[in-house]
TrEMBL record, chain A:
The lineage of its organism: Bacteria, Pseudomonadati, Thermodesulfobacteriota, Desulfobacteria, Desulfobacterales. Keywords: Electron transport, FAD, Flavoprotein, Transport. SUPFAM superfamilies: Adenine nucleotide alpha hydrolases-like, DHS-like NAD/FAD-binding domain. FAD binds at residues 216, 241-242, 255-259, 272-279, 293. SMART domains: ETF. InterPro entries: DHS-like_NAD/FAD-binding_dom (IPR029035), ETF_a/b_N (IPR014730), ETF_a/FixB (IPR001308), ETF_alpha_N (IPR033947), ETF_asu_C (IPR014731), ETF_asu_C_CS (IPR018206), Rossmann-like_a/b/a_fold (IPR014729). This is Electron transfer flavoprotein subunit alpha.
Automatic annotation (TrEMBL), chain B:
Residues 23-214 form the Electron transfer flavoprotein alpha/beta-subunit N-terminal domain. InterPro entries: ETF_a/b_N, ETF_b, ETF_beta_N, Rossmann-like_a/b/a_fold. The electron transfer flavoprotein serves as a specific electron acceptor for other dehydrogenases. It transfers the electrons to the main respiratory chain via ETF-ubiquinone oxidoreductase (ETF dehydrogenase). It comes from the Bacteria. This is Electron transfer flavoprotein subunit beta. Its cofactor is AMP. GO terms for biological process: carboxylic acid catabolic process. One of its GO terms (molecular function) is electron transfer activity. Heterodimer of an alpha and a beta subunit.
Length: 327, 264
């Protein structure tokens, strides 16, 4: 019978990404409920020194697939290696972060292995010994609770920023195992030919702990400076509504909503955003929502934990000053 | 260059979602059905490629008869022909089964590029593209915002934003590309386009026509079962921050965020 909770670690430039710690911590909780082991698969190039520390978050074993062709994620190389490891070891559950990489990988892997998959989940449970996944559908307008049929592994991706990271246990380290796999160059069809880093090095919205977002109420691209000042002050990333993006004020990658990014920060500050259903869909899993809007009837206030009725051009700079007291 | 665009019909994003009495499905009575917004980007990009390189654009949808409308919309935008896979046995199929049906419909066609949307705005899975590429044995490039076809027409370079960076990925044709917002601005169907679309070929196929076994489709064949659909957790009824001036309100908000919400 299939055994064990597996997770795929995510690294970039040899550093583990935050979502890796989230899913390893979650895998530990699930494995404890099942009485099974947690195994992490770590793919990359010269990455082995990062493996043992995953034990601090609950990994029993880390299987390291080290190969220069695994340095940067490509679907074909990663699917090839992971499917070989899965077939050889028969894990019961396979978790990944619902990052750009994880979602791409999980989709192809599930088709390749012929197993069920649940994308972008916000909670996992073990109920009567069964693995159950909960995920938003219709961009959060409803939630579906899912159970898997007998095919294993049961694949699921976890929305970044939702699952909590366990307190690391300094004394624990994981057993590190070298992966056995073959990688055939002729099967590797896609190649990353260039990596373009975003300017400013801001945390991506999907991973940001805090977001300050501006909509049509910002009136023009030049006014985002006041949001950036607030964001810099509290360590936030800046997002936008579709109206602001379509007006050309902000890049497409900044759009939050049903046809943009789905975000789950601890704090979401919506400035001059009315709260259209498509926008709310993308940020409703934020832990604390603040709305700053001059229209007291704006729908955003129905979702906000804290609302300020007022002109954002007065309130936002004042807020930037006021938060200083607490930093 | 022959291009295929997969079209999913989804509830309009304005739709309120009502949960059915079985608590396992949604009520579809009042829903207005539209083309998945991400598929519009696929159709647009396909039309631009055709304008540049020649060839045909074929759109393929799997679903009930109403999907014909979405196919006609794409034909009105300028696609050349449509295929609808419609079979009662498909009801309740999961993403993998849909991808199987699409693969069977697409396999006999000639194609250099296949487009799907990066995800359906209904169940938000974003799996059909990857699964279809797997079944056809071709590479996939997901979440693409820019595509450059090589001079010799044998490969593409595509731009894919990932958290905090963008990757330029090269792949040989044929390739499957999942479209992301930013790829282009989809055109609207023109009136003459709508008239012309009525005469464009639209084939309808059943699973048997595609040589598929109905037993592998539908709810019974799902690998993931819905136990329950629930409304989102209640939120709101929050506090309106008080104060005479913007400064007072800002001070009060900062205090609440620090002391009560503990996020600052
Ligand atoms: C298929 C489809 C998909 C969509 N997907 C998305 C999506 O992913 N994300 C998204 O955001 N939208 C999306 N939309 C668009 C959505 O329907 C709304 O049009 C959009 O969210 C509105 O943006 P907004 O709130 O910035 O602008 P508006 O609705 O115009 O609101 C502006 C707000 O600013 C306030 N305001 C103005 N001036 C000030 C001031 N000085 N101080 C304080 N407040 C001020 C106003 O009171 C108003 O509430 C989609 C629409 C469709 C049809
Ligand atoms: N029933 C379908 N018919 C045709 N294409 C589909 C269908 N379902 C999904 N797709 C394609 O796959 C994309 C992603 O859908 P999904 O994997 O369901 O989120 C859509 O944007 C479509 O391009």
């Amino acid at each position: 019978m299939a055994q064990g909770v597996w997770t795929i670690a995510e690294q970039r430039d040899g550093e583990l990404r935050k979502v890796t710690y989230e899913i390893v911590s979650e895998a530990r909780r699930l494995a404890d409920a099942l009485g099974q082991e947690v195994t992490v698969v770590l793919l990359g190039s010269n990455i082995k020194d990062k493996a043992a520390q995953l034990g601090q978050y609950g990994a029993d074993k880390v299987i390291v697939a080290d190969d220069s062709r695994l340095e940067t994620y490509t679907t074909d190389a990663y699917v090839s290696v992971i499917s070989q490891l899965v077939k050889a070891n028969d894990p019961a559950i396979l978790l990944m972060g619902a990052s750009v990489q994880g979602k791409d990988l999980a989709g192809r892997l599930s088709a390749c292995l012929g197993v069920g998959m649940a994308q972008d989940c916000t909670a996992f449970k073990i109920e009567d010994g069964n693995f159950v996944a909960i995920r938003p559908i219709y961009a959060g307008k409803a939630y579906a609770k899912l159970m898997f049929e007998n095919s294993t592994p049961r694949i699921a991706t976890a929305r970044p920023n939702v699952m909590s990271i366990s307190e690391p246990m300094a004394s624990k380290s994981a057993e590190v195992i070298d992966a056995t796999f073959t990688l055939d160059d002729s099967a590797l069809k896609t190649k990353v030919v260039e990596v373009i880093k975003d300017e400013g090095g801001k945390v991506d919205l999907t991973e940001a702990d805090k977001i300050v977002s501006g909509g049509r109420g910002m009136k023009g691209p030049e006014n985002y400076k006041i949001l950036e000042d607030l964001a810099d002050m509290i360590g936030a990333s800046v997002g936008a509504s579709r109206s602001a993006v379509d007006a050309g004020w902000r890049p497409h990658t900044d759009q939050v909503g049903q046809t943009g990014k789905v975000v789950s920060p601890t704090l979401y500050v919506a400035c001059g955003i009315s709260g259209a259903i498509q926008h709310l869909a993308g940020m409703s899993t934020s832990k604390v929502i603040v709305a700053i809007n001059k229209d007291e009837d704006a729908p955003i206030f129905q979702k906000a934990d804290y609302g300020v009725v007022g002109d954002l051009f007065d309130v936002v700079p004042a807020l930037t000053e006021e938060v200083k007291k607490y930093l | 260059m022959n291009i295929i665009v997969c079209l999913k019909q989804v509830p309009d994003t304005e739709s309120q979602i009502k949960i059915g009495s079985d608590k396992k499905s949604i009520v579809t009575d009042d829903i207005k059905w539209v083309m998945n917004p991400y598929d519009e980007f696929g159709v647009e990009e396909a039309l631009r490629m055709k304008e540049k390189f020649g060839g045909t654009v074929t759109v393929v949808g799997v679903g009930p008869k109403r999907v014909t409308e979405t196919i006609r919309t794409a034909l009105a935008m300028g696609a050349d022909k449509g295929v609808l896979v419609n079979d009662d046995a498909l009801n309740g199929s999961d993403s993998i089964a849909i991808a199987k049906a699409l693969a069977a419909a697409i396999r006999p066609l000639e194609y250099d590029v296949i487009f799907t949307g990066q995800r359906g705005v209904d169940d938000d899975m974003g799996v059909v593209g990857a699964a279809l590429a797997e079944f056809l044995g071709i590479p996939q490039l997901s979440l693409i915002i820019k595509i450059e076809v090589a001079e010799d027409g044998k490969s593409v370079k595509a731009t894919r934003p990932v958290e905090g960076q963008a990757l330029i990925i090269e792949a040989p044709l044929p390739v499957l590309i999942t479209a992301q917002k930013g790829l282009n601005e989809p055109r609207y169907a023109s009136l003459p386009g709508i008239m012309k679309a009525k005469k464009k070929p639209l084939e309808e196929k059943t699973l048997a026509d595609l040589g598929l076994n109905a037993g592998e489709f539908g709810s019974a064949a799902r690998k993931v079962k819905v136990l329950e659909i629930t409304p989102p957790p209640e939120r709101g009824g929050g506090k309106i921050v008080t104060g005479e001036t913007p400064q007072e309100k800002a001070a009060e908000l900062a205090k609440l965020l620090h002391e009560e919400a503990k996020v600052i």
